[in-house]
Design brief:
The protein folds into 3 domains: about 5-160, Trna Endonuclease, Chain: A, domain 1 (3-Layer(aba) Sandwich); about 175-340, P-loop containing nucleotide triphosphate hydrolases (Rossmann fold, 3-Layer(aba) Sandwich); about 345-489, Rossmann fold. Helices cover about 35% and strands about 20% of the residues. It is globular and about 80 Å long. By secondary structure, it is α/β, with parallel strands linked by helices.
Length: about 500
């Protein structure tokens, strides 16, 4: 996105023919409504009445969106000493203005530069801000003009580089206290899913909701946010996690009295005692368990929420069961699909896709990915252990009752693939040994042994746990090493 002079925007709006006007705003990558531009015209005219200094109208980002988040700001102006954010409204919407400014404080607070927040209401010709208690108060436009005149403008080559989307995704498991204390905001897409889910849940009749999304889209956060809302509103909720409970689950249960159980304990619970059953990681549930939950909901007019990602099946039988298809066939489920990746850095996400599928050719030259090659497991293990000492998250491939090749570089005391499902870490280590290869369809696969678990799916699970950095350790595998270098160079 490019900086713009506000007078230029207004004059283009007033004078250019419509095709050229649209082309001009495409250049800035924005599609403003005419009402927003009318509000902007009034805002600029009132600034000019205070001081007609044209310098106050340059170097704005107009309609900027944080990448992957969908959070938009009407006007942003970055400075070395402080930033300025102004939102434009036609009418005074009261609480909505307060909530928007609070959200802006949250999102821009990660910039580590003081920011001044305002809303200009064109119908009132008034400027508002929040006081220390988050009450909406009127400010004289002279205050804003003074700030504009004394701002030391910051030169930014790429405004997107100021924002790390992963900062805004709080994990119920890894940031449990922040989650409980509501120190996060949902994206627009997540908010819409929550709103429509709660509406469906309020009907008090048998109903089914599905929330699907790939790793990094915030599926777990929005699912648990809905559960938190239901618990706060005194609903009887049973949350079924299809896997072993992690530390975050245990904190939610022990400290905050949630009702989270592993799916293997379902037989011990009478589902008639609950208004709502939420199933997390549903792609891993047994068909008989799913059928029991669905039959109970239909018999007792209760509600089921299924949260899943079919691409994160770790067993071949999970893939064969195709739980998503079973939900579609057995219920009239309302399906919400999260599509925007938030947690995973875009370059890392492109690398993972290209690594798993040789037919995809995203280039991913980024300092967020480290690549190291070792010819033997002994030296690789020493290096991996050192990464752990430096703060990297090491995730072992899940062991089975058999001795498998990846057991030779397992790091004792570290979590397995199954234990990190739904969790996130700033920096993750992923190991690719000599048993990985590209099959005839260009998909990354494994050869030489049969595992109870799906090695490539486990590798994908490990890599997608990262938020910021990924370290790939290749052991005695020239084919995969060559592919990594093709992607990164």
């Amino acid at each position: 996105m490019k900086k713009v002079n506000l007078i230029s925007i207004i004059q283009a709006y007033n004078k250019l023919n419509r095709p050229l006007y649209i082309k001009y705003f495409d250049y800035f990558n924005v599609k403003p409504k005419s009402t927003e531009l009318d509000d902007l015209k009034l805002f600029v005219s009132h600034l000019f009445k205070v001081d007609n200094n044209i310098e106050n109208l340059k170097d704005y980002y107009f309609g900027y969106n944080i990448p992957q988040i969908g959070k938009e700001f009407d006007l942003l102006r970055f400075g070395e000493n402080y930033n300025i954010n102004v939102e434009l409204k036609s009418k005074n919407t009261g609480v909505k203005i307060i909530n928007q400014l609070k959200r802006n404080k949250y999102y821009l607070g990660f910039l580590r530069t003081d920011t001044h927040y305002y809303t200009f209401v064109s119908s009132e010709k008034k400027l508002y801000t929040l006081d220390d208690s988050d009450n909406l108060v009127v400010r004289d436009l002279k205050e804003l003009v003074h700030l504009l005149e004394n701002q030391i403008l910051k030169q930014i080559s790429n405004v997107d580089s100021l924002f790390n989307p992963s900062n805004y995704l709080v994990s119920p498991f890894n940031s449990t206290e922040k989650f409980i204390k509501n120190k996060y905001f949902l994206t627009n897409q997540q908010e819409q899913i929550k709103k429509e889910s709660i509406k469906a849940l309020s009907k008090k009749k048998a109903s089914f909701i599905s929330i699907s999304g790939k790793a990094g889209t915030g599926k777990t956060l929005v699912t648990y946010d809905i559960v938190k809302y239901l618990i706060e509103n005194k609903e009887r909720v049973l949350l079924v996690h299809c896997g072993n409970l992690n530390r975050g689950h245990k904190v939610l249960n022990d400290k905050y009295k949630w009702g989270i159980i592993p799916a293997k304990h379902l037989r011990d619970y009478d589902l008639k005692n609950y208004d709502i059953v939420v199933v997390d990681e549903t792609q891993r549930i047994y068909p008989t368990q799913l059928e029991n939950i669905i039959d109970n909901a239909k018999a007792n007019n209760s509600v089921c929420v299924f949260s899943y990602d079919k691409s994160q099946c770790l067993h071949q039988w999970e893939i064969n069961n195709d739980i998503e298809k079973q939900i579609e066939d057995k219920t009239a489920s309302k399906v919400f699909k999260l599509t925007k990746k938030i947690r995973t850095n875009k370059e890392i996400a492109a690398f993972i896709i290209s690594l798993l599928d040789k037919g995809v050719n995203y280039k991913s030259n980024t300092s967020n990915i480290e690549l190291n090659y070792f010819s033997n497991t002994k030296d690789a293990s020493i290096y991996i252990e050192q990464l752990g000492v430096e703060g990297w998250k090491i995730v072992n491939y899940t062991p089975s009752i058999y001795i498998l090749p990846y057991d030779s570089y397992k790091i004792l005391g570290e979590d397995s693939t199954h234990e990190v499902v739904g969790q996130e870490y700033d920096a993750v280590v992923a190991v690719i040994d000599s048993y990985f290869f590209y099959d005839s369809t260009n998909q990354l696969s494994t050869k030489g042994y049969q595992s109870y678990y799906h090695p490539t799916k486990m590798l994908s699970q490990i890599m997608t746990r990262t938020r910021k950095k990924l370290s790939i350790v290749v052991i005695n595998n020239e084919e995969v090493m060559d592919r990594c270098l093709d992607i990164l160079n």
